[in-house]
Amino acid sequence: MCFKNLYIFIISGFLVSCTSPRSLEKQSSNDQWLTTWATAPQLVEPKNLAPEPGLSGNTLRQIVRVSVGGKKLRLRFSNKYSMDSLAVKAVSIAVPSDSSNVDAATIRSLTFEKKNSFKIAPGSDIYSDEVNFNLKSNSLLAITISYGKVTQSVTGHPGSRTTSFIVKGVQASAAIFKNPVKTDHWYSLSNIDVKTGEPSYAVAIMGNSITDGRGSGTNKQNRWPDIFSQRLLANPSTRNVSVLNFGIGGNCVVRGGLGPTALDRFDYNILNQQGVKWLIILEGVNDLGGTRDADDASKRIEELIAAYQVMINKAHASGIKVYGATILPFGKSFYDKPFRIEAWKKVNDWIRNSGKFDAVIDFAKQMQSENPEVILNDMHDHDFLHPNEAGYRRMGEFVDLNLFKN
User: How far apart are CA 50 and CA 57, in angstroms?
Assistant: First the structure.
């Protein structure tokens, strides 16, 4: 995005028109969809493509943990960032039993416009037809995809922190996978929507690797959004609030980094979900970490603040409350430079005191050591930047649930 235009965008008060698939007023209806799980798709880098035998002509089983359950569901598959069409021969869902296997009694085949197979054009998504399925809150769901032709241009989410399984041939209806190849990535799947039968809402989180869970445990589902979600589900006042994790490792807000920037993906990730009532923004450390000198850092402060305001304005126009999360301290990390630390202080000061956010979640204060520029010594993943498992628990337990009560 051109920042000259970005500033004009803010000053004029003009908002880009975005068609939101849900109305919060209508969301109180018992028959409305709620997104219970989602991830932020991107073009998968070559090093993160599926290992041999690959996806083309083969079957992939992926495991996700949903938040809010329901009796009916549908899945969305994405080919948004791919240059080629994606062919799928069959898709099924089931309750996982152990490792790569599923409970045979729970397998349900999905259809797409009443067909088992389909193709997704480049830059497009597709929803499955609605299916009856008893999906419990905070439960695991296995999604099994038998692919047709798949090129090296694949849409997915590399930072799954969860093991997926590949077997040769078309085995979407198989309960048992024999000798599967393992990979810790997700491919093609982007959303799971449910009908809960009662008023339900979602909180979306825009972030980078700290939200994506770098430093959390593989297959433990213990990123900070996971801990936060479990607390919401356990609280009678918030048990119908889902958590949608849109973190991308190495992501930036305004330019550079890995994956589409927060600005570029905002409409697709945040405004294109079902039932979103709140948004948490925890992003900006990679923007600051990429600055070259004091002048560059000063410009990045202005760009970040302008970008935050764009996202706030868009969310507010869609009836979404926005909570600003302060950027965690990164002193002693590979990003540590005096001019970057100074920029970090100024950005966090704006987040805390500008009054632009509907509320502030002060993660920086919660995670700082006696030196506020440095993260707590026992809470980082040996790099003074990413929290470890204990750090993510501390973050997830810090979020005030009162912010998410209807």
Answer: 13
